[in-house]
UniProtKB/TrEMBL annotation, chains A, B:
DNA-binding segment(s): 32-51
InterPro entries from the UniProt entry: DNA-bd_HTH_TetR-type_CS, Homeodomain-like_sf, HTH_TetR, Tet_transcr_reg_TetR-rel_C_sf, TetR_C
Keyword Cell division attributed: no
Gene3D superfamilies: Homeodomain-like (1.10.10.60), Tetracycline Repressor, domain 2 (1.10.357.10)
Xref: Pfam families: TetR_C_13, TetR_N
Species the sequence originates in: Alloalcanivorax balearicus MACL04
Ranges of residues in domain HTH tetR-type: 9-69
Keyword presence, Transcription regulation: yes
Stated name of the protein: TetR family transcriptional regulator
Keywords: DNA-binding, Transcription, Transcription regulation
DNA sequence: CCTTTTATGTATCGATCAATAAAAAATAAC
DNA sequence: GTTATTTTTTATTGATCGATACATAAAAGG
């Protein structure tokens, strides 16, 4: 049964995708409501009735990004067959996603509001939490790898996770600076080679024959 | 001999430091002229007479940052005794500088205007060139290290330089997200360990006895 | 002194910011 | 058809944006 009043003549997800594109290219602060209404094809009152405010719109855009635009970079980490596969996936998938020709370069979550002051504090905090969670996701996978025996006991999983997330966040800057897919993939491959070298177990000491 | 008219009652460099602090914390776009006049203690006409425009002020702030605020992260690369020392210096000095308690966290050049659209295109381009130059500085040092025999012939200097600059740029994001000096230094040390592992020459084949 | 020159303080410019008021339009319930 | 409900359209709102006009103040040159 349709609702009582006049039906809206736009699809919520369709216009959210338009908003995502604008926020992704221009960041939160520099995207004006005029930019959004133009891109979404809505008059301001329709936009505010549907999404509440610029900040509320961005929150919904961020959810859409995580569902469809985030490209599954981080979601696959927990289910990956090994820590190495998780690292390879994150780095290479990032290189691909950040150079996708149909999308703005780099990651919305890294690039949309890097200032600690200035942009809406709530927006900054949400994005910061997403970035911090990237580290946790990696760390937890690495800890499991230690328990599984893939990684040596005593491996500093927090340090490795922070290091890799930092590299991946830097790849957004690189992409935004115009790097092509080959350059991004080169960084990913170098990072993966570094991973292999970092976590290679030193030759196990000969077991005590006694 | 003093100039003809009424002397200005502020020191150019002193107020530039105030402006640097504001731009560093809030980025180019979200810093308003009202923020700047308040922090610098100037009325708008004095500010415009001295610096021309917000963009002109930022250009001078950027020069000041490179001279005094940049902390000598990249300047020492060309003169470093070895490629490894250059890498160690860049990573560790960044960890220190990005967590200096008297300064905003992270690097102005990475954080001030990450959007490709939106902020003044000229400002974005200047910052982008600085970041790109970071890669070149590293690459050139690595190429010299290959010529010196420190690095193996055939080493992909461009890939290594891009990888390390990407890591260093990511450290600004990490710092802006609140990481303390220990966390930043952990990333630096991990990156340095990765460097050592990446460039370690495979054992040289036994020289042909003939 | 008076003129010239430069900097300052006050007040404000038009443009744009995010967000709305009010009325007309389009549907369902009755 | 009439009413109730919701969306759309049009036209603005006060606030803030970067940047200035204008008059005054403070110095040097004559």
């Amino acid at each position: 049964m349709p609702p009582r009043g006049r039906p809206r003549n736009f699809d919520r997800e369709t216009v959210l995708r338009k908003a995502l594109d604008v926020f992704w290219r221009k960041g939160f602060e520099h995207t004006s409501m005029a930019d959004l209404t133009a891109a979404m094809g809505l008059n301001p009152p329709s936009l505010y009735a549907a999404f509440g405010s610029k900040e509320g719109l961005f929150r919904e855009v961020l959810e859409l990004y995580r569902r469809h635009g985030g490209n599954g970079i981080w979601e696959a980490v927990a289910d990956s067959a090994s820590a190495r596969e998780a690292v390879a996936h994150v780095l290479r998938r990032s290189a691909q996603a950040f150079s996708h020709e149909d999308r703005p370069p780099g990651c919305l979550i890294v690039l949309a509001a890097p200032q600690s002051e200035g942009a809406s504090p709530a927006i900054c905090e949400i994005l910061r939490e997403h970035r911090t969670r990237n580290i946790s996701v990696l760390r937890e996978r690495f800890e499991r790898a230690v328990a599984d025996g893939e990684l040596a006991p005593g491996t500093d999983c927090q340090a490795l996770a922070t290091y890799l997330a930092t590299l991946q966040h830097g790849m957004s800057i690189l992409a935004r600076d115009g790097a092509d897919r080959a350059a991004l993939m080169s960084v990913a491959d170098t990072g993966l080679a570094a991973w292999d070298a970092l976590v290679s177990r030193p030759p196990a000491p000969a077991p005590d024959p006694h």
